[in-house]
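I am still getting used to backbone structure tokens and would like to learn alongside you. To get us started, please write out a protein record for me. Start from the sequence, derive the backbone structure tokens from it, and show both lines together. Once you have written the record down, we can walk along the chain together:
***
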Amino acid sequence: MQSVIKGPVYVVRDNIDTDQIIPAQFLNLVPTIPAEYEKLGSFALWGLPESQYPIRYVKEGQLDSEYPIVIAGRNFGCGSSREHAPIALGSAGCRAVVAESFARIFFRNCVATGELYPCESVDRLCEILQTGDVVTIDLDAGTVTVEATGKVFKLKPLGDVRPVVDAGGLFNYARKTGMIPSRS
């Protein structure tokens, strides 16, 4: 269970779709194969236009991102229902996406896979923060604190989603709570 996530943020705008999060040509990678799971992370947010996002989320030739937190505008994760999208972000080292709103299927895939916390912000943080700013997310308090200024922003409660992501996804949560038998 993780309650505090701290680090530099990667900032994107509205309507970031799943093809921008993980382009279709990488969907042949199988996340249950460890080497392919790792490789999937190297392509996270690969579909963003370089003209708008000159700083890459994962540097060329790297497997992991230096940004454990993605800050987004409205409708993050819209588009197709690919589970690969939150998995790619999680594989790259993303622990949370803080957005004004999420596409429903992306939000559900975050919870089902347990890869990252889908946190909804009350404020439009993608206009307040810049890529590289360091923040601390306190999941228990429901806040995002900007390290440089000390300014605190509220998050909407995760509610029943939190223990599922804490457990590492839906199947782990079901095993942990006795809904399905534990693996032998």
In short: The beta strands are 4-11, 69-72, 96-99, 117-120, 134-138, 143-146, 152-154. The chain has a mean pLDDT of 95. The radius of gyration is 16 Å. The longest strand covers residues 4-11.
